[in-house]
Each structure stands twice: as structure tokens, then as C-alpha cells.
Write a structure and sequence with these properties.
With 341 residues, the chain is an alpha+beta fold. The chain folds into two domains: 182 residues, no CATH class; 86 residues, Pdz3 Domain, CATH 2.30.42. Helix content is 50%, strand content 21%. The strands form five sheets. Strands 6-5-7-8 form a four-stranded antiparallel β-sheet. Strands 1-2 form a two-stranded antiparallel ribbon. A two-stranded antiparallel sheet has the order 3-12. It is elongated and about 85 Å long. The relative contact order is 0.12.
């Protein structure tokens, strides 16, 4: 069920991206022929009697597209029809291209804003288990999230600082924790791992949600989006300069697995990841690579600077080749995720 919910969430992000293109195209007077979630042949389709737009779900769930009249420069009347993409001014075409990534940026910001409005996590100095690391000594000993530690080796304590300090001083030594769980008291024995002379059992500090007013939530959401974008450019710069760590590409299967794992941790973690993925879609689609919005934007930039259109043949071939390269990379990454563990 978690995987199905995750697939649905990622599909919504793609649908909203394409809805951005769809809405902007109709706003600036372009005719939209087809709105598709998924690629290749449709498995489900419906044609609007009012607008004539074909809405469909493609057989290959690796993206989506909006077919706009004249987007292909070799279409009949692509440069003559008043409702054609090619017959619109550069700034109108730019609006249509940017509207898709902008939709993802807006969705990410709104999710972060909503999360901030519901409360910003703040560390609580309580002798309580905030989270349990999988495979750690705490999990093996049976400790659970929200367990309150009342005594450590028979001595009372009440703060996280006291608990952490005492655990740190007992590396490799079994300790006795008297805890309270849902009104019941019990005793747990656990041996902290020795990490360079520091005792650790694999638990995290508890947090509490602090509600903030809307204007502060807006600042928090904006700062989060800026941080993600800045970190991504920093990682790309470090990679290009040879100082960055190796980066592993993640495909659709990996993203679904990450989302399902986040859902296991709770709705807040899941929504936080969905917001992050939405910002990543914003950045990915702005890459100056053919077939992506950023690649088409480069052709527009060339047109504005030189005041002449790129060759329709070059435009079409570049975007077609770019499309097949992207599909090929996605299939390779997906195959690795499915059969490579």
C-alpha cells in the first residue's frame, strides 16, 4: 500500500508539472492537442467535447507530456496558424516552457509552507526516545519511540542532556534503563557501542512541533527551497571541479522506494520528501539538455540574442535525440534498481 501511495504521489507531481504547461499554453492562446501522464501509447484516454483536448494515461509511467499545436516545427501550418506554439512571441513561448518547472517549485513551496504552519520541529530536552536507529543496540534491546527513561543504573534523570552524557560515558558496558511506556514501567538492559570512546545505542533526541504564524512559515518555506537549490548547485560545482563525492543516480524505482520508506516513518516525513522531489523536478527540467524545458529554453535564448530562429531541423532532431537519450538512461537506471538490488 505504501508503494502504491508513493507511485500516486510521484504521478501527481508529474501531472502538476504538465498542468503548468497546459494552463500557460491555453492562457497565451495556444491550442493544446493532448495532455498525457505517462509516455507512448495510451491505456486510458478521454476527449473533451468542449475543448477537443485528449486526456490520456500512457503505458510507460516515466513522465508525461503536453502536446501543443506547432511545438513540432514540421507540423502543418506550425509557423502560420495563429494558435500555434511556433507563431507566438519568444516571451509567450518562454512562459509556456517555464510554467511546468514553476508548478513544481510552487508545489514544493506550498508543501513546506503547510508543514511549517503545522509546526516546526524543535529539539526537546527530555529523557525520551525520539527515534530508534534500525539495527542499533536500542532496537535490539527493545526500546521504542516515545519511551521515557526514568532511571539510568538506578539514578533518576529527566533531561536528554543527562541521558546522552551518561550513555556516552559507558561505551561497551551494559547499562540498565528503567523506562515508562504508555503508563507501564519496565526495565531494559542495553550495551552502548564503543564509537571512538563514546557510548552510543542508536537513539535520537525527541522533538516537539512549535507552531508559527503564516508570515514566518512563508519565510521558512522560502529558505528551505533556496537551501535545496543552493545545495544542488554547490554539489554540481564540486562534482565538476573534482572535489565532490560520487553521486548515484536515482530512477523511478529508487524514488518510489525512498517515498515508501519515508511513509513508513510518518506522514510528515513523507510530505517532506514529496516537497523535496518537487523541487528536484523543478531543477531537473531546467537543465540545458535537449527535450527538457531548459534545453528548449536555450533555443529560445539563441533566438532572442541573434534575432533569428534556429533551424527547425536542428531544433526537432536535437529534441528527439535528447528524448531518446533520457528514456535510455531512465531504462538503464531502472533496470539496475530492479535487478541490481
Amino acid at each position: 500500500m505504501n508503494h502504491l501511495i508513493s507511485i500516486f504521489a510521484v504521478g501527481i507531481l508529474i501531472a502538476l508539472h504538465e498542468l503548468g504547461h497546459f494552463t500557460a499554453a491555453r492562457r497565451v492562446g495556444m491550442t493544446v492537442i493532448r495532455y498525457s501522464i505517462g509516455l507512448l501509447h495510451s491505456v486510458v484516454s478521454w476527449t473533451s467535447k468542449k475543448s477537443g483536448v485528449v486526456y490520456q494515461i500512457g503505458i510507460l509511467p516515466l513522465g508525461g507530456f503536453v502536446q501543443i499545436k506547432g511545438m513540432n516545427p514540421f507540423e502543418k501550418d506550425a509557423f502560420e496558424a495563429p494558435d500555434s506554439y511556433q507563431n507566438k512571441s519568444p516571451w509567450r513561448r518562454f512562459i509556456v516552457l517555464f510554467a511546468g518547472p514553476f508548478a513544481n517549485l510552487l508545489v514544493g513551496w506550498l508543501l513546506y509552507f503547510s508543514l511549517a504552519m503545522s509546526g516546526i520541529p524543535d529539539r526537546a530536552d527530555e529523557a525520551r526516545v525520539g527515534m530508534v536507529v534500525a539495527g542499533g543496540p536500542a532496537e535490539a534491546a527493545g526500546l521504542q519511540t516515545d519511551d521515557r527513561v526514568m532511571r539510568f543504573n538506578g539514578e533518576s534523570l529527566s533531561t536528554w542532556s543527562e541521558l546522552a552524557d551518561r550513555l556516552h560515558k559507558h561505551p561497551g558496558q551494559e547499562v540498565v534503563l528503567e523506562i515508562e511506556r504508555e503508563g507501564q514501567q519496565m526495565t531494559v538492559r542495553v550495551t552502548p557501542e564503543d564509537k571512538n570512546g563514546v557510548g552510543l545505542i542508536g537513539i535520537g533526541q525527541p522533538t516537539r512541533l512549535v507552531r508559527v504564524p503564516p508570515h514566518q512559515a512563508a519565510v521558512v518555506a522560502t529558505a528551505k527551497c533556496v537551501q535545496i537549490v543552493t545545495d544542488m548547485f554547490g554539489a554540481i560545482g564540486a562534482k565538476l571541479s573534482g572535489t565532490g563525492a560520487s553521486v548515484q543516480a536515482v530512477g523511478p524505482v529508487g524514488i518510489i522506494r525512498m517515498a515508501a520508506s519515508a511513509f513508513d516513518s510518518g506522514l510528515r516525513y513523507f510530505l517532506n520528501l514529496v516537497a523535496y522531489l518537487s523541487i528536484m523536478l523543478f531543477l531537473f527540467n531546467l537543465l540545458p539538455f535537449p527535450a527538457l524545458d531548459g534545453g528548449r529554453g536555450m533555443f529560445l535564448l539563441f533566438e532572442v540574442i541573434t534575432r533569428r530562429r534556429p533551424s527547425p531541423r536542428v531544433d526537432a532532431i536535437a529534441n528527439m535525440v535528447g528524448f531518446f537519450i533520457l528514456i535510455g538512461l531512465l531504462l538503464i537506471i531502472t533496470a539496475g534498481e530492479l535487478f541490481g538490488g
